[in-house]
TrEMBL record:
<dbReference type="GO" id="GO:0016298">
    <property type="term" value="F:lipase activity"/>
</dbReference>
<dbReference type="InterPro" id="IPR029058">
    <property type="entry name" value="AB_hydrolase_fold"/>
</dbReference>
<dbReference type="InterPro" id="IPR013818">
    <property type="entry name" value="Lipase"/>
</dbReference>
<protein>
    <submittedName>
        <fullName>Lipase</fullName>
    </submittedName>
</protein>
<feature type="domain" description="Lipase">
    <location>
        <begin position="9"/>
        <end position="66"/>
    </location>
</feature>
<dbReference type="Pfam" id="PF00151">
    <property type="entry name" value="Lipase"/>
</dbReference>
Amino acid sequence: MCVQISFKTIILNKNFTLIAHQCPSYQHFQSGKCFDCKPGSGSCALMGYHSDISPGLENEISPQVRLQGNIGNKFFTTTGREFPFCHRLYRINLELANPPTAENWVQGFLKASLHSSAGVIHLDLTPSGDMKLEHGSSYSMVLSHPADLGGNIKKVELNWEYDMNVLEPRTICLFWCNDHLYVKSIGVDELELPGRGKRDTQFNSRLCARNKKDYADISNRGKGVFVDICEYNASPEKIS
């Protein structure tokens, strides 16, 4: 079982519930392709002190027999770089619009502030550097934060900064290109860990731009605001 984690985090905190997701690679995990945690599916497992009560494993079976089913599988998770190491996992889904004025693609940096009744957290959506974004496409990423928002996301503020790269002439935007980012909606998924006698719960929030358009036009170094009003902005056939 392959786990991307420093085990000092487990030693420091016995109450640390560390969940890992089964995934073919860390890149797949980071891009949000392995975010489910359904009991009995083997799609996730607890690490450290709580590994003998992993979701979907029946209590009457011995821990040694239960854990053998995960041997040879790859599980990935992430923690904080400093105390507190224990982090919640959030999957951010970006749906980009493609109006006539948009460039086919832009590249730059994204940061988001998630607002809920439990508080506000700030996430860097491009921690590894600039990101190429094609208008009309969708993107997912998994990020971590020590705070638990309880799935009640009411507002997201998205900050966009365009990146001009002299090594890539198409990104040099002076007079002849559009450095705006057009975002149709933002989805936020937060997983509530399944436990004994409890079904899995995955909180899904979809937020849309607070204007008469069906997308937010975010200028370079600007900010877009998204709220949970998608059902009011969309026609009935667009609502899933």
